[in-house]
Amino acid sequence: MLASKAFVFSLMATTLAVCIAAPVFVLQASPYMQPGQNWTGGLLMGEDLRLLDSGRYVSRPWRDICPRDSFSYGSWRRSGDVIVLHADRPDVPERRLCAATIRNCPMLIPLDQKNPVKWISPGVVFGRDGERCVGRLDRDGHTGRLLRGLSCLKPERKPD
Prior knowledge:
With 160 residues, the protein is α+β, with helices and mostly antiparallel strands. It has helices at 2-29, 133-140, 143-147, and strands at residues 36-42, 45-52, 56-63, 72-79, 82-87, 95-102, 105-110, 126-128.
């Protein structure tokens, strides 16, 4: 009789431990359940970028045609207005993004020396998930002028 009570007690304790630990494990396992910000860029094809508060990121490219469900992971850091993404895979180069707010519209602007951004468009910059202001700025026109004042878009000067 005492052995069966001990068995029932240990079974209940194990069940309780699993019920408490499982949600915590799921929250830690899924990057989309952890605190962070979602950013989206693209029109017919693009990328979803999630910057986690922990300093990690998750990136998922997408297309309207021929969907692609590949994820890439890495770490990110912010230095002033520049966000630097370091992929976990060594063959993926570092990416730099300019964090800017233009006319109350938060955005991440890719910094590419070969192809500098010349205008604001949903196909060119990342907008914060759920906000449509990047598209509104694009429709208003003359977005190239709005980019001119951003210090992170000016070419870096090399010391003499």
